[in-house]
Specification:
single chain; 187 residues; alpha/beta; Nucleotidyltransferase, domain 5; 6 helices; 5 strands; globular; exonuclease activity
Length: 187
C-alpha cells in the first residue's frame, strides 16, 4: 500500500535573495494531512554561513522588523546539525513529504540547497508545490492576479503572519489546505 502524502508547508527567513552568498537564518515546517490536520512542526534558527554576507536591501528590511529579527537569532544551530535533524524529522512523517511554499521558488531554493550541502540529501527530491500557482488554477485567473489580496477571504484562517518562520509555515499550510478543500468541492 502506498504511503499517503503529507503536505509540508515551509517558510524560510534569509538575509539575501539566494543561498550561498547569503544565509538562511531560520526555517520552519508544518506537516498537514490532506484533511487539514496539523500533525507535526519543525523549526530551527541557523548560524550564518561563514563565507556569506547580508544583502543591503534585505539588511534594511530586517532593521525595520526587529521583533522577527530577534526571533530568528535566538538559539542558533550550525546548519549541518539543523539540516540532518530536519531530514530525520521528514523521514519520520507518516507519509511522503510534499514541499509546499508561498512562494515555493524562494523557500524551496534555500531548503534544497541547505539539505544537499549539509545533509547530503533531500527527502522532497526536486518536488514542490507553490500555493500561488495552485490558487491560480483554482481561481482560473492569471498568475499575477492570484495574490493573497485577491484570494477569497474564506481561504484564510485567523492566523498571524509575523515573519517568524513557524507562524508563517502554519498560516500558509492552513491556506493551502483550505484551497485544496475548495478544489475538491469543485470536482
Amino acid at each position: 500500500m502506498a504511503k499517503s502524502e503529507i503536505y509540508v508547508s515551509t517558510d524560510i527567513e534569509a538575509d539575501g535573495p539566494i543561498p550561498g552568498p547569503h544565509s538562511m537564518l531560520s526555517f520552519a515546517s508544518a506537516a498537514y494531512t490532506a484533511d487539514k490536520k496539523l500533525i507535526k512542526t519543525f523549526s530551527a534558527n541557523l548560524e550564518t554561513l561563514p563565507e556569506a554576507a547580508a544583502h543591503p536591501d534585505t539588511k534594511a528590511w530586517w532593521e525595520k522588523n526587529s521583533e522577527a529579527w530577534a526571533a530568528c537569532r535566538e538559539n542558533c544551530q550550525p546548519p549541518d546539525v539543523a539540516m540532518k535533524n530536519y531530514v530525520e524529522w521528514l523521514k519520520a512523517l507518516p507519509g511522503k513529504p510534499v514541499f509546499v511554499g508561498y512562494p515555493a521558488t524562494y523557500d524551496f531554493m534555500f531548503i534544497y540547497w541547505y539539505l544537499i550541502r549539509f545533509a547530503g540529501e533531500s527527502p522532497f527530491s526536486h518536488s514542490g508545490l507553490d500555493i500561488k500557482t495552485y490558487a491560480m488554477a483554482v481561481l482560473k485567473t492569471n498568475y499575477r492576479e492570484s495574490t493573497k489580496r485577491n484570494m477569497p477571504k474564506r481561504w484564510f484562517d485567523k492566523l498571524p503572519h509575523t515573519h517568524v518562520a513557524l507562524d508563517d509555515a502554519i498560516e500558509q499550510g492552513a491556506l493551502f489546505c483550505n484551497i485544496m478543500r475548495e478544489a475538491d468541492k469543485m470536482n
